[in-house]
Batch of 4 targets.
Target 1
Amino acid sequence: MTSKIKVYLVEDQDLIRESLSSMLSLETDIEMVGLAADAETALEEIEVSSPDVVLMDIRLPGMDGIEATTRIGEFDGDSSVLILTSFGDEYIEAAIDAGASGYILKSCNREQLVSAVKATHQGQLPIDPSVTTKLVRELSELRKGNSGSQLTPRQLEVLKLVAEGNRYKRIAENLFVSERTVHREMQAIFDRLGVNDAAHAVSEAYRQRIIV
């Protein structure tokens, strides 16, 4: 007998959370192992239970779903995160950069949701068809060597705050993420801009008109 796919759902709206849970519970090969309305609660339970797939909303009270996805990637378990959001392609780059294994919209139907959960569990990368155009465009820009296109929306946020003179601790507080995340994003910015410190990163960003 094939084991069921263990799914944990993080969604702050009660009605949506209960509806999604009920919908997925109807599947004979899916088992709902936990529900949470906020990322902090979810992280504590996910680290212990290590579900196969975490369905993660982005806009959550306190820590957002992007930061939570990064934290889950640091656990010892093998949980894969499938982003389920009402925002189109606005967060796709940040989600994938944080380690998400898929990105679908809440406007999807039951069949699409179940298919995305199973695809995520199988190691695939389910992306909602409505946002794939952006990914194709970004890949095209990367091939042209456009450094600005290589920075995720979150990295651009961090870089702009650095350019304004904010310290990493203040940036972490403003973005509701950990200082560790800010340091990681800055290192990624250094690598992508070919620099070694924040001052040169800001200088290069202005030179390339990545920030103005």
Target 2
Amino acid sequence: MLKTRYLTVILLLTTSLLAKDIIVTNTKVLLGDNKAPFYFPSYTVDGKSIMLTQNAYSGLWMLDRTSEELRKVTDSQGAGFEPRSLIDGTVIYRRDEYQKGRKFTSLYKYTSNGEQLIADPARLVSPANVVDDRLIYLIDEVPVILNASSAQREINLEDYTTVLNDKLTLKLFQSGEPSVIAPQGEGNYIWSELSPTLDKLVYTKTGVGTFVSDLDGNIISDLGIVHAPHWSPDGEYLVYMKDLDDGVQYTESEIWIVSFDGEHSWKITDTPERIEMYPQWAPDGKHVIYHSLLGDIIETTLEIVE
């Protein structure tokens, strides 16, 4: 009788896990209809606005989700390449300038008081991750911690855990020590992102596929052809694009969601007439944002049900 009771509990738990589903409740074009094209949308950390850019990451705009007001932040080249935001509404962006054919990147922050230079131009500046309002990034492979409020550099890495792409390798910062992590051996790694729960890593090894591992490099799941993955706020799912091309241009792309273990997946868009790309998850876990190949900005509302 006791064994039967345990079996019943296990079956109930399994049924509960498998019963979880993701349903699309609404899809809306936020910007489009022959307006100026925008690309690579991402939510601010408070979820109140959407950061946007144009061709070649030129310029940065903010779209207020409540008022639908579109505001230009800057025309700077490179500003739209992985901008970051802080909980107080501050936005961090890059400014790329060329001197004798060599690119130099500086960092600026934008607040209600305007823009402020916070990091002087330097060569080989990686995109920054934000941990506790600190920017962690690389300058020619050397780690930098920048206090975004004071614009002062700090030296203690012990309190921060993050992963950065460094010249197509993965560099893990944990317990004060940087290390190269290569779960699939030597090769080119892109689209890496640490989970919000700080215990899992998603990455793509070019020519091989996309994987989820723990921070010791042990593979948790092989997700296959999953491009530009982005974690859900609870670290349970990844939103991504499934795209095809003819060797010259994209021929189709849809937005999908997959559980981190690769066991369950959901097709979020089904629009052969529109190529949708580079999705990002909202902080509330109920929306994803992405752009079309023609520069439309589209938001889908989701419901996760038991």
Target 3
Amino acid sequence: MALFSRRGKGDDPASASSEAPVEPDDAPAAQTAPQTEPAQPAPANERAPEPVPHVGISVNTFGQAPGTPPAAAPARPAQTAPAPAQAVAGIVDNVLLQQALQDLPETPTAGAIMNVMRQALQGPLYVRAQGDAQALLAAGEGLNLAITTHEDKRFLLVFSGGAQLQASAREEIAADPSAAISALGQPALAVLRTAVDSGYDGIYLDHANPGARLVLPVDLVRKALEEGPSVPFELKELIAGPRDESTAAQITDVLTRVTVWVAGGQDASGEIGLAEARGQGKRRLEVYSHPVEVIAMGRGDRPLPLTPARLGRVLASEPGLDGVVIDAAGPWIEIDRASLAPVIALAD
């Protein structure tokens, strides 16, 4: 495959050049919180209709159709997630999602929306329910989840942490002082799956937090679930969670089992290359836990999937690569070549 160079070199993963060959598969167009079994919602507790921010984004963004506005990735993304926080005792905040919501411009761009989407794929998410959620689930009863409606569409209310839950509950209690409200925290996958499987038109993140709230349409959420890895979010959770001396080995183990993505681009002649991060004399292949992570880099690259065997082939065919950097939009992690020996051994 022809090679080309297309981006400047730098010391952080956001600066890269593309010149590693690949034969990709066909491309498709942490912290913990109290957990329960995925909720089986009864008829939802509908809030009074309220303005719902318009989201002007096409689900084709995953395929980077011509003319798709690139996302705005941080110039120097943080290597690790912020320390765990609890604005309300006992409720672990999803700090990465909160940061993405706080970074939204007044009129959300496609890139900013995709940045929120990628950070909604990890950590805990919270929903509100009428009554005692734990008691209802223990009794095998469905939950009456809080939603809002707008123009005949129903949006599941989803929260990033305790303060956001409290702000929403205050509105409800002000309207009905006798209201009994509880919160339920689950892994991101469970909440997103509930939104899709229960027929909602989307999720409304932190609706009571003006300036840091957003609707993600259900088509986008569904696409994120369907086009992600076969073992959802396992790699993303490891990178976004706390790290210790075993983290690199855990990530390498995941790389031997699940599909990942690389960032592919073309020059004017149609030649294809993959993005590398360069700095301090090192060359590392950029690898991503989900196609939305490629888009979040904001370079107009196309997400290209690699099975573990094909990732091993790329690494084996390029002995000059010093390893990989995963999820370069941040949080990110570097895995050196020696640690990737189990992946390279899979080369087919």
Target 4
Amino acid sequence: MSDCIFCKIIAGELASDKLYEDEGAVAFRDIHPQAPVHFLVVPKRHIASVAEITPENSGAAAHCFEVIAKLAVQEKLSGGFRVISNCGENAGQTVPHIHFHVLAGKTLGAAMV
């Protein structure tokens, strides 16, 4: 999608602080971190949100979780981390490209956000 900020990051048109990239996903630090460690994992395939996962594209989302597991080791998140995906405007999704926030580096508590 030509106007999708994450598609532009994936294409190299916009800069990001990349942590990881492979054929199916990219991970980069959030520009407005909500925890000492806060990065996003984004599939390279454009899927608007979790609500649009289908049997045909679910592998892209699954791959993101494989990347999250690798990055948890790389970033030394052995104390735990939280994974969040907002789905739709009312849930706070601001970029219509599925992505997973990974937060860590402090005690996040029982509250979901």
